[in-house]
Amino acid sequence: MFKRQTEIMTLNGAVAEYGKQYGIPTPACDFITKQVLCMQANYDKQYEG
Fold it and tell me: What pTM was estimated for this model as a whole?
């Protein structure tokens, strides 16, 4: 992994935000967005192995 920032907020994050805005549940997008953001926030704690 190259520890670069992803486009998660542009892609899945936008879908999740539109869903909230229009009252449409987007549980898969919410989950994926949170998981990727968590990975990005913890790049320094990950190891190559």
Answer: 0.74
